[in-house]
Specification:
With 650 residues, the chain is an alpha+beta fold. Helix content is 50%, strand content 16%. The chain is built from 22 helices and 22 strands. α2 packs antiparallel against α3 (65-82) and α3 (65-82) runs antiparallel to α5.
Length: 650
């Protein structure tokens, strides 16, 4: 059974006690009952605050928001009980007005804190999802037998067997067998790599279509997947130490307010007494306690978390889930937007972008490719079926060691693959320049033409990059893919710089390099390999539609529709949210300062006026905070302008 949330229980219990207390106070004026109910209601709401304040005081941290809330709310009870006449005021209807305010102050504070905790609770729950890329077991070959063991029991130099569809548990070198290997989760490389004996292979990679035996070169704890997990944990731990705004604010505000109240309580009556005047200690202590009640930052502790909570809702309307209030400020101040390529700028899947084959010739190639499951083969068959025809039957097909395939379709001998394969079979090919994967095709020794497959950029990527650049944000692409592919994608997307051939730790190093130059880095990525850099960046923005669980959990924000235009909209929205929060902070402080000055300057300043003013400020701040729920969505317009070339700083 799930344990109930302590703060919610406190809020409900406080409200349940407060309602009858107000009825006994306002209607009957029955002092023994309403004072007891007010006290119990206050205790229900203040319980966690008392514990936090006591713990912080033991640590030497006295002046925080918990201390101020306690002093202000207790001050309200003292004012009501000490400076009110029992017969004519306390026992009359409405006699507990100030005590009610003291309870409300604490109740509203707890509600505000609950909003804040709801916003940040999801931030780092699922980092252990990264473990999904590290198998719980490995099949080790010992004495000619295959034994399933825990990966950390495998020593460097031992052999492990990896079957189709399984992840490689430990870094190593392929000893025997061959397979296409999907390493996009680790390197971000879009095209599956053909691995055979002698090739290096990293943990976290997936064997696509063949059984391979790997001789391990590292302990499990030093393998690529394990190091990635450590990078995420370290970066997340560093971010978790950030202080909330109200804590930083209270460190300055609370001692100032307490010092002013103490001076008001002591200096004027002492000066009057020394000057031969009367005893006015009661009046000035009452004024000092009034200052504490007035200075209670109720409007701040509610409106500021509520602003960010509303801001999270507004960002969600734009398609971005912001995980915590502390994300808005670095999001707004980001000076560099760095992107992964595969699945972030691009669609994350292969598509046919060029085909010189006639439809009947394409049918032969599609039939041959239909016997295979790797992404390039699927892209060709999907392209053909999109034309509306069924794929012919393929009698026989064989894979040729990372070069292509040979097949028999309707008695026709079909060859599809690299130009090297066709030339080995005596077929002369025609040049096909470009960075993307080209498949040459031949039928019965006759060259048919070529098909180019590529991971196309998303429709809105170039426009989103252009808008970020227009806003003065530098754009960078970090990818594990080949230089030629990265260059072509960077040019089409219009990014300022790109870096290719990067491993996860290299991406982290590049982000750290930018941060060391004083840049605030927003990184967008979608793969497991992006989890460490998402955690290390000032703001990690995971692509949620196609992104891995690890990336989504490591990020500070999640783009739910995988559209980079949402990243731009959310950045503008973050600026609006911060502006609203600052309006509430500055406005509340100015009005409270004015009320405090009046409370000191006017000899008979009524406390109820200060309370109404305080509640009024709180309500105005809450209404203003609700504006954070609104968001302007960027119109999805496709730019027809020619994209500017990107510079390759490698």
């Amino acid at each position: 059974m799930k344990k109930p949330n302590g703060r919610i229980v406190s809020i409900i219990l406080c409200a349940a006690l407060l309602i009858p207390a107000v009825l006994f106070d306002k209607i009957a004026g029955f002092f023994p009952v309403y004072v007891t109910l007010y006290a119990l209601a206050w205790l229900a709401a203040a319980r966690t605050v008392i514990v936090k304040a006591a713990r912080n005081i033991r640590r030497g941290v006295i002046f925080d928001e918990n201390f101020l809330m306690l002093v202000a709310s207790i001050g309200a009870f003292v004012i009501n009980l000490v400076f009110s006449d029992y017969e004519t005021e306390l026992c009359a209807p409405g006699g507990g007005e100030v005590m009610m305010d003291g309870v409300l102050v604490m109740l509203l504070y707890q509600i505000g804190e609950h909003f804040q905790s709801m916003a940040v609770k999801k931030s780092r729950k699922g980092i252990k999802q990264l473990l999904s890329m590290r198998p719980d077991s490995a099949v080790v070959v010992r004495g000619g037998e295959e034994i399933e063991v825990f990966p950390d029991e495998v020593e460097p130099g031992e052999l492990i067997a990896v079957r189709p569809g399984e992840r490689v548990a430990i870094d190593g070198v392929v000893e025997s067998g061959a397979s296409y290997v999907d390493s996009s989760a680790i390197t971000g490389e879009s095209e599956p790599r053909y691995c055979r004996a002698g090739d290096e292979i990293k943990s976290g990679s997936i064997a696509v279509d063949g059984l391979i035996t790997v001789r391990t070169t590292k302990p499990f704890g030093e393998s690529t997947a394990s190091k990635m997990l450590r990078l995420v944990e370290e970066a997340s731990e560093k971010k978790a130490k950030q202080e909330t705004f109200i804590t930083r604010f209270a460190k300055v505000y609370t001692p100032i307010v307490c010092a002013i109240a103490l001076l008001v309580a002591v200096v004027p009556p002492l000066a009057i007494m020394l000057a031969g005047g009367g005893n006015e200690w009661g009046h000035w202590i009452y004024t000092a306690l009034s200052l504490l009640v007035v200075s209670c930052p109720c409007a701040l502790v509610i409106s500021v978390p509520l602003t960010f909570f509303g801001g999270i809702g507004g960002a969600a309307k734009a398609g971005v889930l912001i995980k915590g209030a502390d994300v808005f400020s670095p999001y707004m101040h980001a000076t560099v937007a760095a992107f992964d390529k595969t699945g972030t700028i691009t669609e994350g899947k292969f598509s046919v972008v060029e085909c010189t084959l006639a439809e009947k010739e394409l049918a032969l190639v599609a039939a041959a490719e239909s016997r295979f499951t790797h992404p390039i083969a699927r892209s060709v068959t999907a392209y053909y079926t999109s034309l509306g025809d069924e794929t012919p039957a393929c009698e026989h097909a064989e894979d040729v060691a990372g070069k292509g395939i040979k097949a028999t379709v309707g008695g026709v001998r079909v060859i599809v693959g690299k130009a090297e394969l066709l030339e080995e079979c005596g077929v002369k090919t025609q040049p096909c320049d470009g960075p993307f994967t080209a498949l040459h095709a031949a039928a019965d020794g006759r060259y048919l033409g070529h098909i180019v497959v590529a991971d196309k950029i998303k429709p809105g990527s170039a426009q989103a990059v252009a808008e970020l650049k227009k806003a003065g944000v530098k754009t960078v692409m970090l990818t594990g893919d080949r230089y030629e592919v990265a260059e072509a994608v960077a040019r089409e997307a219009g990014v300022d710089e790109f870096y290719a051939g990067l491993l996860p730790e290299d991406k982290v190093a590049k982000v750290a390099e930018m941060q060391n130059r004083g840049e605030k880095v927003l990184f967008c990525g979608d793969g497991i390999n992006d989890a460490p850099v998402l955690a290390a960046a000032d703001v990690g923005c995971a692509m949620g539609g196609l992104g891995s669980d690890a990336a989504i959990e490591a990020g500070d924000a999640v783009v739910m529709n995988d559209d980079l235009s949402a990243v731009v909209a959310a950045k503008k929205h973050a600026r609006k949210v911060i502006a609203i929060a600052m309006q509430n902070i500055v406005g509340s402080l100015l009005i409270k300062t004015a009320i405090m000055i009046l409370a000191i300057a006017l000899p008979d300043f009524p406390l109820w006026v200060a309370i109404i003013g305080d509640v009024g400020v709180c309500l105005v701040a809450i209404v203003n905070a609700m504006r954070a729920l609104g968001v302007k969505k960027r119109a999805a317009q496709t730019s027809g302008q020619t994209k500017t070339a990107a510079s390759g700083n490698l």
